[in-house]
Amino acid sequence: DTGVSQDPRHKITKRGQNVTFRCDPISEHNRLYWYRQTLGQGPEFLTYFQNEAQLEKSRLLSDRFSAERPKGSFSTLEIQRTEQGDSAMYLCASSLGENIQYFGAGTRLSVL
Amino acid sequence: QQQVKQSPQSLIVQKGGIPIINCAYENTAFDYFPWYQQFPGKGPALLIAIRPDVSEKKEGRFTISFNKSAKQFSLHIMDSQPGDSATYFCAAHALGGSEKLVFGKGTKLTVNP
Q: Which of B49, B97, B103 sits opposite A43 (nearest CB)?
């Protein structure tokens, strides 16, 4: 499979727990994006990496959220002390330079 | 602040019909306008995209019409099929920088047999 891969596909957690999601971009894509999508809405930008550098973060990304992309390959998104409002689909996308963003299938987070 | 406004929220057509989805934007720095298709449980997939130097682009049964002066663009699906039933999102970004996509709220399209 040469597409963007996200793991896990579904995550159920209790309020206050920490969760971590992983994204494997398309090989050789230097740009990686995280978006969040809630029911009935379009995806909203969270953060962007060019290679291993995190170059932009949305105001939506509170201090409880952290993202990394070590070595410019896969990326992780961690949410600490989850809240019910964090329940959403977390989407990862990758692109090669100024080109099409290819999306993964997403990780659906449910915070109980 | 919603930078890309999309309408209608939902749309039902018969097979063979031509659904039209409209979007309007505010930021004049936007210069790339893609449309994404999303099926339940899947991530968005690029359908077709346009830059503001052309007024129309066709790819198969999908056509984008673009009106730069009105800051509006629309998606037309010719000869729609039940398999086209999905949620469609318009989006925009400005070249340079992160090129993060700003999405509309989506249109749920249902094509009845």
A: B103
